[in-house]
Design a protein that fits this description.
single chain; about 240 residues; Rossmann fold; nine-stranded mixed β-sheet; globular
Length: about 240
């Protein structure tokens, strides 16, 4: 389901405006679209954009996922052997989740988990190379506050956002804004509201559960039972 009023714009920050999009086609997501997703940690892709990733892949779009870290500094280690290195385990989980979502192009850049804000220039340089090589029509990342406020999420968003004005003629910037019960973005700003089909929800659950080091048994299905994760929210930015 897509919600919005065609042509409406409103300020979302100094020099920035939000542009309403009513349909995937209006957002240039079609059979020829190239879409780059940029997130901070393994599991971000499944929590915040599994439905959109599936929808684009299913229409024949060309999707690439960039994960800036291996998640090696995380504190959760459900079911892992004490000797197993967390970043290695989470990288493996991400590859499996990507396969479930229909995504064959997944790249892990191995920046420092928990310290992305101190590596912004290097991250921007790496992303600039990826954008130059991939030539995306659209780049999707966290909204500026990182959805949950996580400092790595905010840093990932800033790195992409810093590149956007210079590259605005090349790609459309899209902010992932979380799900219905967890978003810092005012409701009026949300212009792409994606309700997952039953099959998309099933695959999203499966992808999330693949990140088994990060979620307690039954946790993911409890989220879906309470209807928290079946809607994904996004908005589109343009420079003024």
């Amino acid at each position: 389901m897509i919600a919005g009023t065609a042509g409406q714009e409103c300020e979302i920050g100094k020099g920035w405006r939000m542009k309403t999009i009513e349909s995937l086609e209006a957002a240039r997501i079609d059979s020829n679209a190239k879409v780059l997703f940029v997130f901070a940690h393994p599991d971000d892709e499944s929590v915040f954009a599994a439905g959109l990733i599936q929808r684009i892949c299913r229409t024949g779009g060309n999707v690439r996922l960039i994960c800036l870290t291996r998640g090696q500094a995380g504190s959760l280690r459900y079911g892992l052997n004490a000797r197993e290195e967390l970043g290695t385990a989470r990288s493996r989980e991400l590859q499996r989740a990507s396969t479930i979502l229909g995504l064959s192009d997944c790249r892990i850049l191995s920046f420092s988990d928990g310290r992305l804000s101190s590596e912004l220039q290097s991250i921007e340089d790496a992303l600039r190379e990826e954008i130059s090589e991939f030539e995306p029509d659209m780049v999707v990342t966290f909204e500026p506050e990182g959805i949950t406020g996580h400092r790595d999420h905010r840093a990932a968003s800033r790195a992409v956002t810093d590149l956007f004005p210079a590259e605005a003629g090349q790609f459309q910037l899209v902010y992932a804004a979380g799900h219905r019960d967890h978003t810092p973005v005012p409701r009026a700003a949300l212009k792409l509201i994606l309700r997952l089909s039953k099959e998309e929800a099933r695959r999203k659950i499966e992808a999330l559960e693949t990140h088994q080091s990060q979620f307690r048994p039954g946790q993911v299905r409890n989220w879906f039972a309470s209807d928290q994760m079946e809607v994904e929210l996004f908005y589109f930015a343009t420079t003024s």
